[in-house]
Amino acid sequence: MGICSLCVAPHPTLRAVARPVVAFADDVRRLARDLIETMHAHEGIGLAAPQIGRDAQVFVANPSQRRGRELIVVNPILSGARGRTAVLEGCLSLPNVWGRVRRAAAVRLEGWDATGKPLVVEADGLLAVVLQHELDHLQGRLLIDRLPWFERRRAEARLRAAAACA
Ligand code: ZN
To answer: Where do the domains of the chain lie?
Structure first.
């Protein structure tokens, strides 16, 4: 597969709760590779399986954008959060939309890597924000859901305008 096409709002996959991975077979590693290739192709710093139309609890994160530094997380659970932050976020599935989202400043997350090995990630800074953003994707949640209503209305209008031009 390699580089996949992106699902853009209001694509229904973006609003579904993704299915947990139950067997760590080759398809999980292939999906992780597809996510990594697609993320780099679009100069993203994170990408979740639903964004390429795949129903699986898998995401990749790479705030440094450096190849070989990608973090792959399967079936993640948020097991700790502290502090508060709000940075301007964008999303490959929401063209031309940016919003300052209130999130935890530091998080602890547990899951598995693509081979089925348990994984614990403790993060702050930009990685903590990316992890929370991608976790949201696996729950069918988008950054616009976390904006104040007036900002959300403005973002939705921008998305409708973009869809009308496409
Ligand atoms: Zn996103």
So the answer is: 12-165
- Provide the residue-wise pLDDT of the chain in tens; the chain has 166 residues: 789 999 999 899 999 999 999 999 999 999 999 999 999 999 999 999 999 999 999 999 999 999 999 999 999 999 999 999 999 999 999 998 999 999 999 999 999 999 999 999 999 999 999 999 999 999 999 999 999 999 999 999 988 888 877 6
| DSSP alpha helix (H) spans, 42-124 | none
What CATH superfamily is the domain 12-165? Answer: Peptide deformylase (3.90.45.10)
Q: Annotated catalytic residue: which of 70, 134, 151, 156?
A: 134
CA of 39 to the centre of ligand 1 (A): 11
CB within 8 A of 33, min separation 6: which ones?
1, 2
Distance in Å, CA 25 to ligand 1 centroid: 26
What's the order of all strands across the beta sheet hosting 71-82?
Answer: 46-48, 58-61, 71-82, 106-112, 118-124
The closest alpha carbon to 33, from 65, 64, 4, 11, belongs to 4
Please give the distance, rounded to the nearest whole angstrom, from the Cα atom of residue 8 to the centre of ligand 1. 10
To the query of whether residue 70 is one of the catalytic residues in this protein, the response is: no
